[in-house]
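Hi all, posting the design record for the shared folder.

TITLE: backbone redesign
STEP: 1 of 1
STRUCTURE INPUT:
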């Protein structure tokens, strides 16, 4: 028998009334079968929701089976905003997709808990999601080079190129790039230490460019886009 605390990133149906939940924990991804969780009478009916922070006790050799569990936080306020919830669904889908990579899971797990808390508490929460997406690039080994021109190491008047994987100076301008201001926002988000300073704000005028730059980066360097992204576009319009 083992105890896990984790964020539910995904769940799939199993047989008629049961589900397997995939928790992101300090030790990485853990799948747990919850018998009968889809029946109205189940005490775990509400436990198995995506995004819930839960504590479970599970046993079993191959597939772990839930013996007991409780909700630590169901983030009910987040569910009141479809847009927030969809953004977080996009985020947990990303974490799930790359959860079996060799990361510092303990660090990422604690970081995600802080991010979800900030998303819950802030009206302008989108930069927190962007922060996760940018910091994940480092964990995935495709981190952008942001502080000097990739070609000549110049540190002034830089722009951001998705294809080149980072900053370029005015002497080495690529065909397509994001402005110096956008690069600065990316730097700010990428290096932000949420443990030292929880608050971060990004001027709204850059949000669309940041969204596009991140999407393009994932597509180009990891061949990845979330399934939720389309739904998100329907809600936010870009
Ligand atoms: Zn240069």
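Okay, here is what came back for every position:
SEQUENCE:
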């Amino acid at each position: 028998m083992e105890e896990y605390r984790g964020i539910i990133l995904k769940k799939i149906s199993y047989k008629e009334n049961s589900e397997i939940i995939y928790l992101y924990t300090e030790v990485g991804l853990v799948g747990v079968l919850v018998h009968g969780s889809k029946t109205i009478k189940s005490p775990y009916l509400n436990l198995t929701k995506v995004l819930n922070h839960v504590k479970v006790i599970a046993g079993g050799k191959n597939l772990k089976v839930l013996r007991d569990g409780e909700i630590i936080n169901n983030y009910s306020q987040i569910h009141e905003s479809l847009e927030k919830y969809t953004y977080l669904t996009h985020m947990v889908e990303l974490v799930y997709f790359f959860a079996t990579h060799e990361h510092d899971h303990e660090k990422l797990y604690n970081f995600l808990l802080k991010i979800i808390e900030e998303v819950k508490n802030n009206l302008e929460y989108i930069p927190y999601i962007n922060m996760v997406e940018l910091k994940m690039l480092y964990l995935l080994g495709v981190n952008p080079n942001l502080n000097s021109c990739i070609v000549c190491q110049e540190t002034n008047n830089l722009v951001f190129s998705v294809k080149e994987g980072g900053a370029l100076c005015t002497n080495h301008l690529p065909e397509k790039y994001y402005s110096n201001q956008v690069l600065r926002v990316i730097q700010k988000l990428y290096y932000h230490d949420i443990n030292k300073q929880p608050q971060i704000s990004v001027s709204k005028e850059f949000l669309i460019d940041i969204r596009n730059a991140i999407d393009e980066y994932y597509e180009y360097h990891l061949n990845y886009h979330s399934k939720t992204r389309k739904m998100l576009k329907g809600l936010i319009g870009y």
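COMMENT: Residues 149, 151-152, 154, 168-169, 171-172 surround zinc ion (CB under 6 Å).
Let me know if anyone wants the other runs.
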